Amino acid sequence: MRLTRRYTVNPIIRRTDGADEMARILIVEDDKSINELMVRCLTVTGHDCLAAFTGSEALCAVKKEQPDLILLDINLPDIDGFDIIKFINGIPVIYVTARNEINDRIKGLNGGAEDYIVKPFDFQELVARVNVVLRRFGKADNIVCFGQVKVDFGKCKVYREEREIEVTKQEFELLKALIVNKNVTLTREQLLNAAWGWDYDGEERTVDVHIQRLRKKLQCEDNIKTIYKIGYRLEI
Q1: What are phi and psi of 164, to 5 degrees?
Q2: Strands 69-72 and 24-28
């Protein structure tokens, strides 16, 4: 049995009762290098990852480990991914596969998958899609803390040392994008789209101005890092 638990890092997402919480994600991918990259990518953002390389290993892990989310390849050496999902009840599944035909996408989504990602994919997009599904199933908390900062997604409020800090809608959306993709570098374009929308035709310099305001208001210069010529990253 090659099923292995990978390393984890301290998460920044905290429950309101004070206990740390992260999602347990099962990655089912027979390509060892891709599996390892996905594990590293999701681990660094605070999740507990398990790796399986065959369908039989995946079904065994589902029974023993009870993951919160499964990233499932379709072309596995023993059991087809479309068949595996029939034995999975109550756990959200995202297909991650090289099969990009529209019929396969429709079959996957109609078969019960929450999302369908085609290889090759961008790891930042993978993290974003994973977090969307986790939020949908209540596996991501509304209260997020890092340092002296607390962000309440439900109330759209930000606090530092329990004192509410006034932020604009764009500043809140920027902070939200950085938190959801914590420890992942986001380009200015990605942040612009997150805070102002895809149809915004303003300059990327706008992101720099609002990031500087966030740093000053929250006193989190050590957390929001500038990545030269690329964008920004929230480091925890």
Answers
A1: -70, 135
A2: parallel
- Which parts of 17-68 are beta strand (E)? 24-28, 48-52
Q: Answer yes or no: is pLDDT of 212 > 60.
A: yes
Single out the residue in 136, 151, 169 at which a domain terminates. 136
Q: How many CB atoms lie within 10 A of CB 152?
A: 15
pLDDT tens-digit series, residues 95-141: 999 999 999 999 999 999 999 999 998 888 898 899 889 888 876 65
Q: How many structural domains comprise the chain?
A: 2
| Measured distance between the N- and C-terminal CA atoms of the chain, rounded to whole angstroms | 34
Same domain, 13 and 125: yes
Same domain, 220 and 183: yes
Cα(69)–Cα(83) distance, integer angstroms: 17
Asked if residues 223 and 147 have their Cβ atoms less than 8 Å apart, the reply is yes
Query: pTM to 2 decimals?
Result: 0.61
Burial of 230 (C-beta count, 10 Å sphere; 0-12/13-18/19+) = exposed
**Domain enclosing residue 22, as ranges:** 4-136
Q: Do 174 and 105 belong to one domain?
A: no
Q: Cα(15)–Cα(206) distance, rounded to whole angstroms?
A: 33
Q: Cβ(131)–Cβ(180) under 8 Å? A: yes
